[in-house]
Amino acid sequence: MQEEKYDVVIIGGGPAGGQAARNLSQKGYKTLLVERYKSFNDNNFSSAGMTLEPLDEFNLPDNIIGSYWKDITIQCTKKGYDWFGEKPKGVVLDFGKLRQFLADESVSSGGEVLMGHKYVQKRVQNSEVEVDLIDQETAVIKTIKTRLVIDATGPLRKVMYDSKEEQPKMDVGSGTEYLIEVDQVTYDKYKERLVFFLGHKWTLKGYSWIFPMENRILKVGSGRTHLKSKNQENTDKSTKKITEKIIKEYIQPQEYTLIDVHGGILRYCEGLNDTYYKNGVIAIGDAISAVNPRGGEGIRYAMQSADLASDYIDSYFKTGKENFKEYEKKWKQKKLLKWRLSEASSKRMYSKYSDEQIENRVDFFQQNFSMDVLVDSLFNFKYNKMVFRIFSFLWLKLKYKFKKEEF
Ligand SMILES: Cc1cc2nc3c(=O)[nH]c(=O)nc-3n(C[C@H](O)[C@H](O)[C@H](O)COP(=O)(O)OP(=O)(O)OC[C@H]3O[C@@H](n4cnc5c(N)ncnc54)[C@H](O)[C@@H]3O)c2cc1C
To answer: How are the residues of the chain apportioned to helix, strand and coil, as percentages rounded to the nearest 5?
Structure first.
C-alpha cells in the first residue's frame, strides 16, 4: 500500500479527462490522470468525426488528424443525397492519438498519468477524498489522497455513484465500428466524404456511417439508440451484422483487410439531469451526458465541459469557496435547449419515421439547403438559416395561395 497526495485526481483518460488533466496541470495543480487501459490504442472506440472548429478551440495538432472531409452523403433506403463542399469542413481524428496527446500535454506541464489502473472505490474524509486504484495486471491496490476527484469515466459514471442503482434513468445507445483497409479505387470513392445511412435498409433504429481515415483506411460502423433490450451482446451482434452488410453490399471493395473491431456505449440522461458535483467528486464529459443525443458526437462537448469545470475547480482552489452548482447551471444554460431539441428529433428520426418520411425530409433538405447549412444543423445545432429559409418558403407558398384566391 502506498499513499500519495494530489490536488486533483482524474479518473478516465477520454477526451474529457485528458483535457481536464491538461488544463489543471497547466494551471500548476498537482494532477493524476488514471486510465484503466494500458494503452490508448486498446479502447480506440470512437469514430472521432467532427468539424474544423474544435481544432482551434482546443489547440489540437495536425498529427492526430486521420483525414479531412469536405463532402457529405446521406444514404437513405432508396436513394443517396450528396452535398459537396469546396474546401475541408471537418476532420476524422485518430481517437487513440487524441487521448495520448492530451495525456502528454498534461505530463509536459508536470502532471502524472497512471495507465492500466482502475478506480475501485472512494472514501470522503473532511476536505479530502481517499481513492483506491487497482493495478489491472498485478491486482495491487494503490491508495491516493486528493482534494478533488473528477469523474471522467464516460457512460459508466463510476466515481460519482457508488452503485448502479443510484444513477438516474438513462437512455442507452450502442455502436460497433470496423476499421478496414481497402483497395485504392474503393478508398478514393470515400476519401474526403462522410457517408451517413438512415432508414431500415442500412440501420437499426439509429444511423450507420463510413468515415475516411488516412490513405486506404475506412471506419465503417452502425449505432442503435433508445435500446430497450438490456442484452448488450445481442445489440452488438446486430450492429456488427449491419456493418458487415454495408461493407459487402454497399462499399463492395475488391478486397479488404479487417484491422480492428471496436465499439462502445452511450448512456444519456434526458434533460441533463445527472449529478454534477457531490462530496468532493465533480463529473465531466459523458458522465454528465455531454454527448449529443441525436448524432452521438461527444468529443468536442466532453472537452468543453472539461474546460468549464476546470475554471470552477481553479476558482475553488484559489478562493476556498466551492461553487459547483454554478458549473451545472452554466453548462445547462449552454446546452440544455439544444440537447432537448436533439432528444426530440432523434426519437422522431430513429424510432418513429418510416423510410418514406425520412427520404422526404432528406430530399427536402437537399433541395433547399447548402452544405454550410447542413453542417451547421448537423454538427453545430445552429438552425437560424434553416428556420429562416423554411419560413420564407412557407411565406411564399401562402402569398401564392392568396394571389390565386384573389384572382
Ligand atoms: C461507436 C462510437 C462512435 C462515436 N463517434 C463519435 C464521433 O464520430 N464524433 C464524436 O465527437 N463523438 C463520437 N462518439 C462519442 C464520443 O466518443 C464520446 O462522447 C467521448 O469519447 C466522451 O468522452 P469522455 O472522456 O467523457 O468519455 P470516454 O471517452 O468514454 O472516456 C472514459 C474513459 O474512462 C475510462 N474508465 C472507465 N471506467 C474507469 C475506471 N473504473 N477506472 C479508470 N478508468 C476508467 C475508460 O476506459 C475511458 O478511457 C462516439 C461514441 C461511440 C461509442
So the answer is: 40, 30, 30
CA–CA gap between residue 303 and residue 98 (Å, rounded): 11
Does domain 3-65+94-169+270-344 fall under CATH 2.60.40.10? My reply is: no
CA atoms of 70 and 84, how far apart (whole Å): 7
Q: How far is the CA of 167 from the centre of ligand 1 (A)?
A: 18
299 lines ligand 1 (CB under 6 A): yes
Contact predicate 100/15, CB 8 Å: no
Domain range list for the chain: 3-65+94-169+270-344, 70-90+170-268, 377-407
Return left, alpha or beta for 222; rule: phi > 0 is left, psi -120 to 50 is alpha, else beta. Answer: beta
Among protein residues, the one whose CA lies closest to atom 45 of ligand 1: 12
Record the pTM: 0.94
Model pLDDT for residues 244-256, shown as the tens digit of each residue? 999 999 999 999 9
pLDDT in tens, 332-349: 999 999 999 999 999 998
Provide CATH code, domain 70-90+170-268: 3.30.9.10
Task: Answer whether 46 contacts ligand 1 (Cβ < 6 A).
Answer: yes
Q: Is the CB of 96 under 6 A from ligand 1?
A: no
